[in-house]
């Protein structure tokens, strides 16, 4: 895959870019950044790449570290880790995520394993491999967390547990890389996405009203706010909630 750039625009890699919040972030940053768009398959990204002709794909099944390493190498970032920065990267947005799980008594091992693999382990591994490029650019990591990164409850042990862990990861990374890479944690409340529809259906809510929830574009605007902060400033944590309870 080519790693050359047609402009001096900063480069942003966005995971989970095929729909929902990730797609909204891609649309928000498209005017100012070259885009590398992440998804689990080429088919799921086809329509998005047609919308952004200059964007490059980043295809990886985020439940496997080998797949992540291959995607990093294919995107021109070399071996990642201590192997060198390789291609330019200014912004890494972790938007991919999954939600699953019932009560503790009803949730088996494999559900925890899958949710934590995507929501935590993949974030950690992808960040680790891309840190040389981010350091070289004086770049930024943005994690799309959740209000569930602060609060848990009945049936939320798996999802909230992964988001608590993601918050801890982001806090640690911020302090480790302070002065080299900026780290922002975004905590939306309920967002009008396909995932929200599925969650509400699982709760027995079959009268879904998306107007009660945050639009993905509003979350994307918070990412823009963080990305556009002047170099001496860092938005560390930002919460955005629906007006309606």
What's the topology here?
Layout: E1 11-14, H1 20-29, E2 34-39, H2 42-51, E3 56-59, H3 65-74, E4 91-94, H4 109-137, E5 140-144, H5 157-176, E6 182-188, H6 194-202, H7 216-227, E7 237-240
Helix pairs in contact: 1-7, 3-4, 4-5
Structure characterization notes:
41% of the residues lie in helices and 14% in strands. Strands 3-2-1-4-5-6-7 form a 7-stranded parallel sheet, with helices on both faces. It contains 7 helices and 7 strands; from the N terminus they run βαβαβαβαβαβααβ. Strand 4, helix 4 and strand 5 (140-144) form a beta-alpha-beta unit. Helix 3 packs parallel to helix 4 (109-137). The chain has helices spanning 20-29, 42-51, 65-74, 109-137, 157-176, 194-202, 216-227, and strands at residues 11-14, 34-39, 56-59, 91-94, 140-144, 182-188, 237-240. The mean pLDDT is 91. It is globular and about 50 Å long. The N and C termini lie far apart (47 Å). It is an alpha/beta fold and 245 residues long.
């Amino acid at each position: 895959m080519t790693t050359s750039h047609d402009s001096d625009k900063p480069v942003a890699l966005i995971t989970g870019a095929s729909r929902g919040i990730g797609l909204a972030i891609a649309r928000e940053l498209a005017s100012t950044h070259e885009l590398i768009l992440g998804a689990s398959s080429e088919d799921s990204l086809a329509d998005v790449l047609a919308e952004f002709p200059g964007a490059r794909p980043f295809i990886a099944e985020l439940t496997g570290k080998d797949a992540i390493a291959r995607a990093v190498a294919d995107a021109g970032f070399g071996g990642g880790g201590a192997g060198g920065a390789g291609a330019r990267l200014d912004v890494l947005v972790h938007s991919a995520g999954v939600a699953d799980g019932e009560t503790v008594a009803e949730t088996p091992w494999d559900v925890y394993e899958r949710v934590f693999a995507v929501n935590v382990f993949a974030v950690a591994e992808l960040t680790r491999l891309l840190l040389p490029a981010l350091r070289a650019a004086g770049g930024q990591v943005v994690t799309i967390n959740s209000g569930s990164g602060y609060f848990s409850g009945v049936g939320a042990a798996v999802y909230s547990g992964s988001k608590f862990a993601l918050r801890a990861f982001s806090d640690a990374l911020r302090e480790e890389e302070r002065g080299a890479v900026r780290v922002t944690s975004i905590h939306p409340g309920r967002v009008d996405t396909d995932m929200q529809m599925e969650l509400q259906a699982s709760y027995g809510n079959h009268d879904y009203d998306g107007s009660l929830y945050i639009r993905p574009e509003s979350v994307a605007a918070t990412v823009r706010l963080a990305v556009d902060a002047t170099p001496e400033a860092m938005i560390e944590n930002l919460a955005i909630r629906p007006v309606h309870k």
